[in-house]
């Protein structure tokens, strides 16, 4: 204890409390004189009460005398006080065999006598309408507010049901000596529950209701065509306005043009993120005059940093040429008009009408992440969205068939972000615009993660006489993760696919990047390729990649890890060693 006291003093606040385990009253009194003891953990339950007497040195009495909390280890008597202990199913055959070898109370002879005791205990529990587990915990809690049962939830569903029953019993038996639960127990139970189960928990007591409410309303989901839709959420906030301060995240399951605007009309001071998603045709629409009227009541959300808009009419059921997207008007721009936004993701929406919106509808000074997926958008809208942005770090653009800009216009659009843009994902598939020059990103030194079609990135690389020079004049120099999409995507018959890939030069492209890592991409750590799961990498090339400390593998097109996870990885900050 003297060493702990010195360590506590030395670490200056990192050790807040000291607890002891399996200690006698005499030892506890001595150590308490050296340094304060906050808690003592002992084996204590309705089945194991020897600690109350001289054999257990009257530890509970000593703890109360010294003002020390008691942590009740094994409050269910190592499983004896679980309902199905009597029929032997609680542990299974293997569990019983292990316990019967090492724990006396489960050994032959002892176990039968203990079953008789537990049967009497169960009879009392049945009279109360609860299980033996619940009765055991209620008994402990009734012993005093300074006793905290140490509950270990192994079988989540079974044990959580016991917790529910326990807390319900406590609520019904409110006259049992002013019984209350310690906040630590509340917190422990809450952490094991799913959000949907918190409501039942909130009904058990005033204290737990007070502790649970902030977590219960922190993230709110709506469900289309139910009483819990967006309109239902508006009614809830109107009826219980105190909830507004508790909401941090909204997941809206439908596009109700009127109800969502009314929702934005509430002051939600702590709202951090909104996911507005809709599948199918948008039916709850309003005219432009009604939009203008409701827009006047919208209150800016000063802490909203993440907004996701995803209105998908099952686009994969249609070819790209036949797809139709919900068309946003100027009066819809206000839906993501939040100056605090740092991340904006828009999917399956026609944004072209926003080219006529005023510049103040895009207050994106703080935007760092912009993701546009399979939407109708033109260069003018891009200009308006990106004009106020100062430090764009992540840009993802998924487009098919046609681009809204030329490669030169793209460079001009993103030129000001060349020192801040770290992640660039250009999922341009089946582009038919016919540009053959490739995208020059060689002067974007901040780029670390790059994804794109080789023909988009490098131009006509297959027929280039000097591929190393072509790659050097296109690739950003500091890339650490390079992912090539539409790699070997052509269908080849007669079992000659691998030969065709070699002929087209795909393996040669990988080989060129690996062999010339020092000249082209000295920081490269991962070389990935999509749409090519059957591509066989020659053993020699794999060995060369390993020597160059490059990991190579084929990924699915759906593989899209959070770039921040990559950027925050320990290896991201490592610099390659200088070659001698």
Automatic annotation (TrEMBL):
InterPro entries to which the protein is assigned, alphabetical: Aldo-Keto_reductase, NAD(P)_OxRdtase_dom_sf, NADP_OxRdtase_dom
| Pfam families for the chain | Aldo_ket_red (PF00248)
Q: Where is this region: Disordered?
A: 548-580
For this chain, one GO molecular function annotation is: oxidoreductase activity
Q: Does the keyword Secreted apply?
A: no
NADP-dependent oxidoreductase domain boundaries: 1-151
The Gene Ontology CC terms held by the record are: cytoplasm
Q: What keywords is this UniProt entry annotated with? A: Oxidoreductase
Family matches, as Gene3D superfamilies? NADP-dependent oxidoreductase domain (3.20.20.100)
Question: Which named protein is this?
Answer: NADP-dependent oxidoreductase domain-containing protein
Q: Which species is listed as the source?
A: Fusarium torulosum
